[in-house]
Structure of Undecaprenyl-phosphate glucose phosphotransferase:
Amino acid sequence: MVKDFQKQFNRLHILIDAAVISGSYFLAWYILFGLYHEKVGRLSFAIYMQALFFIVPLYLLLNALFGLYAPKRTKGRRAEFAGILKVNTIGVLLFTLVLYLGSKNAILYHFSRRLVLVFYLTCVVWMTIERNVIRSFLRRMRRLGFNQKNILLVGYGEAAKGYIDRILTNAEWGYQINGILDDTHEPGFSYHGIRIIGAVNELQPLLERNALDEIAITLPLSQYEKLKNIVSICEKSGVHTKFIPDYYGVIPTIPYMEDVAGMPVINIRHVPLTEFYNAAAKRLVDIIGGIVGLVVFSPIMLLAAILVKISSPGPIIFKQERVGLHQKKFWMYKFRSMRQQVDSEEKKGWTVKKDPRVTWIGRILRKTSLDETPQFFNIVRGDMSLVGPRPERPYFVEKFKEEIPHYMIKHQVRPGLTGWAQINGLRGDTSIQKRIEYDLYYIENWTLGFDFKIILLTFVRGFINKNAY
């Protein structure tokens, strides 16, 4: 059974973690005192190694607290890496606190603080490598048919079909669907090879055979009394049970729960940036990044300003009304890339291929995205962020909010100079629907690390926009 395998694997994983933590600590000691043949100082190698009696149990406990021993079937690499960073950061802070509080002790007083810092870096690197190797090994084993988790679906409808589609697409998760129990279809009916094997009232005999790891209930909430009975049967059997709601198309990918005096409440959408500390951290990064951007790009901006001025009559900076955070309108700045036009035409007009309105320097600025650099001023002012969904003109916002589901969700965060959709090629004349899907993923999965990744990829993949006209 998978449960037995999981227990055995977790024991092995703890031993591997202990070895990796110890090895990372030894490597840190070697880098400081062995690699460059520095003097160890007043503490011997043996004394430094004794610290492992404190470090290893602490880190293993933190690993457990931050869910690093949870099954890896559907947990992403990014979430696991975030857990590794939390474990090591808290571990080092506690380590440092012990050294500070015990500074009157001769050993703790002379203990190398540099060693603590180097250990932090080596441990993060080696724990990440270790867990990715384990993840790859487990996924390969599951693809080959080992370590499979046997699941039975109760109920057949859109939720069941959506769940089956995902299980069959991701063989590395290691889920084996043994069949479906349903009262609305005859036994033998199948969906993608998954057969209906009986009616819902046959659940208890199947559970008594003790051959299942999970029950996934996909019945609609309209069958409330039947749902209560099924949950009662499942809980008596001791088999892990989960509920896949038939309204999954309404809620987002990461809903979050609240406990309201014992009543579970599902929030429709989780937006991390609505939390004060997240918003404050992002704003601080934006202010620093905006100022740095203005300084770094100032020579290019000066040259662009001169070329725009001599290319055609009109202002150097083009300002356009856009819709931002909480649907508030603001003036977004760009280098003018077109000849001047009437406001009523500009508000409703898309740029088309070989657009005669675009000047020669404007075509270069658009293609290289350098026409966007004045938006560093918008970032410093607070109208925009370094990273976020791109802002749109009021005319198109009114149009798209009626045509594209979830379009207005993007206004729960500040618009960005670059974004997750943009670095995935969704710029210029591309699908608005697809852009919104990427924007929603960014909004629901925001972290500072995600922002830095997008900024880095913006530079790595270049500023050239093949869809810019």
In short: The longest helix spans residues 276-311. The mean pLDDT is 83. Residues 274-460 form one domain.
